[in-house]
Design brief:
alpha+beta; 17% helix; signal
Length: 164
């Protein structure tokens, strides 16, 4: 009788083990308290952790946001000339990267969003250079393009100083 009970427990344990593994790998999601955004200069750095993936899976992760950026023409003295030339853009920005899940089905990483280069946005007169002076990132989200997991990152991340 004790052999039967032992065999029954072994069978139950094996069944639980088999059923538990797919459940962990079948619920991809970003870990909210391990996903964050911060400014680094005029770029937005998004650090993240995603769990619930199959071990070894390669995932394409995309970060997107709405960018508001102000560019100004600045003279060699670091000042805005008397006839200031500037422009503000409002545009969607995004970047993607590939990440491989570890043996526990987790990926961790970071992606960086940047504003377009100043010289590609504003054409300045001779003796002046186009300069990115102010940025603001809103409506930030991170998405795993393969698993479909997504997370919105609340807040507005702004930096820079207009030149007078």
């Amino acid at each position: 009788m004790s052999k039967r009970i032992l065999a029954l427990f072994a069978a139950l344990f094996t069944a639980l083990l088999v059923l538990a593994s797919p459940a962990q790998a079948g619920n991809p999601h970003f870990i909210k308290n391990a996903t964050s955004a911060s400014l680094s200069g005029t770029s937005l750095v998004v650090k993240f952790k995603e769990a619930g993936l199959p071990s070894g899976a390669t995932e394409t992760v995309t970060v997107s946001a709405t960018l508001s950026a102000t560019y100004q023409c600045v003279n060699n003295g670091g000042k805005n000339p008397n006839d200031p030339k500037k422009t503000t853009i409002n545009t969607a920005v995004s970047t993607s990267g590939e990440f491989k899940a570890d043996k526990n089905g987790n990926i961790t990483g970071s992606l960086t969003l940047s504003a377009p280069a100043a010289a590609t946005v504003l054409d300045c007169p001779s003796g002046q250079r186009a300069t990115l002076t102010v940025v603001s990132y809103t409506a930030i989200s991170i998405t795993d393009d393969d698993s479909g997991a997504t997370l919105a990152i609340p807040g507005t991340f702004s930096g820079g100083t207009p030149i007078n």
